Amino acid sequence: MADDNFETGDLFQDPEGFYPEEKPATFAEHHMLSGQTVRVRLVGSHPLYANLLWNAGRTSSHYIEKHTSTLIRDKDVLEIGAAAGVPSIVSAIQGARTVVMTDYPDPDLVTNMQHNADLSAALIPAGPAGQKRLYVEGYKWGSTVEPLLAHLPAPGPAAGFDVLIMADVVYSHREHGNLVKTMQQTLKKEAAAVALVIFTPYEPWLLPQTERFFPLAEAGGFTVTKIFEKMMDDVLFENDPGDEKLRRTVFGYELRWAPEKLGESA
């Protein structure tokens, strides 16, 4: 007869120290040109590098602030690959009508984005009739966009965002096709609608692969215009190899619908 009281002892117990200790969350501050400070929590450690406040995110936020009157105020904004979400938060502070902050639908990422949205709530003015401005969603690039469009004031098949913020996402080379697909499905079919693609080549030898995103976007119906290069004071990763000048440079591009695409139904 089998022994129903078979004892395994510590056979299946992991020895102490078998798994590395989970790093605690840290905090970072982004100083707006207005003098306001946006404080965000960073995930302690994460395979998608959500534990960093990237140069492109800071630069995007300053660009948004400088161009608020024409780019952001009373507009609908979607951030793709938000991580800590500083550009989304700054857009909401600057009076965007609707902001949807998104990143990969990982519980740690989504929870942290919501934490940062809540942390900055006092800085964000209430919308008309007290409406909420800032929303958080987990989103996998290339997947259905209905949950994102549902936050728009007038959702529907022709709905879209006035501005897409895409900071430091194009280095995910295998995801270029999904990024273009997401742009096609979320950017409003209007001449003024724009996707901001802002990035730093942290691995300069991969820059040619990163830049393949732009002809792919053109083939997908968009025009590409370079709008700035900004040299940062310091590199983000001090001990990394490669051209230091490139690793300190933030590149900014505007992508808009090609004129021939504007006549097509949304």
Word description of this protein:
With 266 residues, this protein is of the alpha/beta class. It contains 10 helices and 9 strands. The radius of gyration is 21 Å and the shape is globular. The mean pLDDT is 88. InterPro entries: EFM7, Methyltransf_16, SAM-dependent_MTases_sf.
How would you write the strand order of the largest sheet? 5-4-3-6-7-9-8
In terms of DSSP E residues, the strand content is 15-25%
Beta strands, count: 9
Q: What shape does the CA trace take?
A: globular
State the distance separating the first and last CA atoms: 71 Å
Average pLDDT over all residues: 88
Biggest sheet, in brief? 7 strands, mixed
Rg of Cα set: 21 Å
Runs in which pLDDT lies below 50 for 5 or more consecutive residues are none
Count helical runs: 10
Portion of residues in helices?
25-40%
Indicate the structural class: alpha/beta
Order of helices and strands: EEHHEHEHEHEHEHHEHEH
Pfam families: Methyltransf_16 (PF10294)
InterPro entries: EFM7, Methyltransf_16, SAM-dependent_MTases_sf
EC number: 2.1.1.-
Organism: Penicillium capsulatum
How would you sum up this structure in a few lines?
S-adenosyl-L-methionine-dependent protein methyltransferase that trimethylates the N-terminal glycine 'Gly-2' of elongation factor 1-alpha, before also catalyzing the mono- and dimethylation of 'Lys-3'. By secondary structure, the chain is α/β, with parallel strands linked by helices.
Question: SSE layout and pairings?
Answer:
Blueprint: E1 26-31, E2 37-42, H1 55-66, H2 68-72, E3 76-79, H3 86-93, E4 98-103, H4 107-119, E5 134-138, H5 146-149, E6 163-167, H6 176-186, E7 194-199, H7 207-211, H8 213-219, E8 222-231, H9 244-247, E9 249-257, H10 259-262
Parallel strand pairs: 3-4, 3-6, 4-5, 6-7
Antiparallel strand pairs: 1-2, 7-9, 8-9
